[in-house]
Automatic annotation (TrEMBL):
Pfam families (alphabetical): Thioredoxin (PF00085), Thioredoxin_6 (PF13848)
Acidic residues composition bias: residue spans: 14-26
Entry protein name: protein disulfide-isomerase
Record-annotated disulphide pairs: C72-C75, C418-C421
Catalytic function, reaction form: Catalyzes the rearrangement of -S-S- bonds in proteins
CDD domains, A to Z: PDI_a_family (cd02961), PDI_a_PDI_a'_C (cd02995), PDI_b'_family (cd02982), PDI_b_family (cd02981)
EC number: 5.3.4.1
Gene field: Pdia2
NCBIfam families per the UniProt record, alphabetical: ER_PDI_fam (TIGR01130)
Amino acid sequence: LVLSLAWLGPALGDEDKDEEAVEEEEKEKKEDEVLSDEIKEEDNVLVLHEHNFARALSEHQLLLVEFYAPWCGHCQQLAPAFAQAAAELRNESSPARLGKVDATAQTALATEFGITSYPTLKLFRDGNRTHPLAYTGRRDSQGIVRWMQRRAGPSATLLQDTDTAAAFVSSQDLVVVGFFKDLRGEAAQAFLEVAAEMVDMAFGVAEAAELFQAYGLSADTVCLFKKFDERQTNFPVDPARGLDTAELTRLLRVHSLQLVMEFTNETSNQIFGAKIPHHMLLFLNKSSSEQMSLRDGFRAAAGGFRGEVLFVVVDVAGHGADVLPFFGMTPADAPTLRLVKMENNRKYQMEQDNFSDSAIRTFIRAVLDGKVKPHLLSAEPPEDWDTRPVKVLVGKTFEQVAFDETKNVFVKFYAPWCPHCQAMAAAWEELAERYKDREDIVIAEMDSTANELENITIHGFPTLHYFPAGPGRKMVEYKSTRDVETFSKFLDNGGTLPVEPPVTKAPGNSTGEDPSAPGTDESRDEL
């Protein structure tokens, strides 16, 4: 073996020298490429840098640029969809193209365009680099393609006569038509802005007098045409205030939904994307005709709450089975009703389920008026909850432990399925071992999918809160790096981190951290 190694030694040394020479040549080649304004492509995506950026803007009317970091997990997740969208746009000969910039290497571009997180997507139109438009669409291939298509062509179809208007209105289950006396006026332009953003709806626009008459209109109006519920919903433009784009967007989102939605894989994005503040849920088993008949009263109650409360039917034996644990329910609990306040995920339950439309209306009104207390979930405490280093809290025991005036209590709120929680589990156990003999410090955890608290809302996992000893029911959220040493500094310093020398910032990142690194908001799973 020794002889063999001795024989191979000189050859291995020569190979190392050859590799070094090759690496140097490749480095010089890359530097030469960067200095050139030549535009190369990777998977139909333009590879951009400081020296070819201006050329790319001059050659492409619409250019959506992703500013990324090679180490960023979110960028890596976006890459396949971004490449697929680039291919689709190129195949249809669209004037829209996609490009990418490594913002960690191209620091001048990152600074010029104010890149502070990754990925950041900006649209450059007609070569203008001073006022790029922030990307607002979905981050999947279809969402990117639709968003770009809407900006590449007219955002709304011009309807010139009754025949084209009738054909457009009947072409899809849901379309939006803006009727304006002057298509160059401010209201019409605001409507076109909305059309450019709401890429999941078809928009038309009309100014012909015969079309105003055909649809019973006398003034500027936006009409939503549906093949369900109300067939035509009118939103007149206020002559004094004009057309507010945010308000019109909200109204279209709200009224584009069916009066009563069924929770499915296809409708979930619509249900949560409408941003209606309350959801009234009817849990039933669709295989039971008796339970299905309860939908009539549920639907009858829905009409008076359009835009304020969204009515949703959840099949406990179908797609809805996955959400039952969130409510502490099993399929055997159906049929039953729950109202959810979306801003804090508070759930409300009737004392006894009554499925009549009048009872449902009365219950909803009482919740909206603040007359009903939320229904809080709590698991049963394990028998050994306080004998191991990490104390296991549940809803029923949280108050007595967290607000014990003789203890400093550090609590991890987690979800069993959360990968970020799983990643820090070992560090939390080690922390508890380190402080298990300290009478004044308690390290605890609570499964927030099975336990809820009246005055503390958990929006993402893991969330860490510190409850210092003493009166006043104080609470401090921990937002720093999630490792044992930093946790220890925080505890030993009384619930704050000692001041340390500033960290050098990474180029193109205002925090100096990877937005997806442990200890930052991006490394939490949002509810």
